[in-house]
Design a protein that fits this description.
elongated, Cytidine Deaminase, domain 2, 2 domains, 5 strands
């Protein structure tokens, strides 16, 4: 008796398999700058969802959140509101976001920050620009202006975070810091400083100066860029 061929003999592979191979090849040739946001999202989803066409899911994520970066900044619950995104996939997306923050932080960890200002801005944007709530972050520097510690001092609402100048300076003294860079985000997307931002900066400078601690800058980040209070001559 002749052997029967396997049930799937001659069956073609799902249409998305060839597309995945071609997309990977294009990424290797041109890098991420040559791909639109939804295709970069597709590449990221391949390992999380190996046996499904992920293009519709990638497009839905970009449509929902506005960009690749904003999708990475969304919280797990919001990601899971997109059809096709389960907890495991949402967690994978957040892992990629965390990896990006670690990469950006590595660029500022071992050298004087004032000579690496572009890297500082990129790190701050990666860490906070797309967060859904306002966060106030402190970069503590030593005498060489190298990073001692990077801490989130507080998390607030969509438009306010309580900041206590004496607590900021107390923590700087505990760490032996001689300088600070203040950073916070505007979830609205507009990084323009508010009157409250200017006021709290002045208060922190006033408390820090007698203690020999310099406030180099207060950076505000948002989806539409960043603002430097020192650059605006507000410090």
């Amino acid at each position: 008796m002749s052997k029967q061929p396997p049930a799937d003999a001659g069956a073609s592979e799902p249409h998305y398999v060839g597309h995945r191979d071609r997309l990977r090849e294009r990424f290797l040739e041109v890098g991420d700058q040559g791909l639109p946001d939804y295709e970069l999202m597709e590449l990221m989803l391949y390992r999380s969802i190996p046996r499904r066409d992920v293009k519709p899911i990638a497009k839905a994520l970009i449509r929902r959140f506005g960009s690749f970066a904003e999708a990475l900044g969304a919280n797990i619950d919001r990601l899971m509101e997109v059809e096709g995104v389960g907890e495991a996939t949402a967690t994978d997306i957040k892992i990629v976001a965390a990896a990006g923050r670690r990469l950006a932080k590595g660029a500022v960890s071992e050298r004087p920050l004032l000579g690496s200002w572009k890297d500082v801005i990129e790190y701050c944007r990666a860490a906070m620009a797309f967060a859904e709530r306002e966060e106030f972050r402190l970069l503590f520097l030593d005498k060489r202006n190298c990073l001692i510690a990077d801490e989130v001092q507080g998390v607030g609402t969509v438009d306010h975070t309580p900041v206590y100048p004496r607590e900021v300076v107390r923590r700087a003294l505990e760490l032996g810091a001689t300088a600070l860079i203040l950073v916070h985000n505007h979830p609205s997307g507009d990084p323009s400083p508010s009157a409250a931002d200017i006021k709290v900066t002045s208060e922190i400078v006033a408390v820090a100066k007698p203690m020999g601690i310099e406030v180099h800058d207060h950076i505000i980040v948002g989806r539409r860029g960043h603002a430097s209070l020192r650059g605006l001559k507000l410090i």
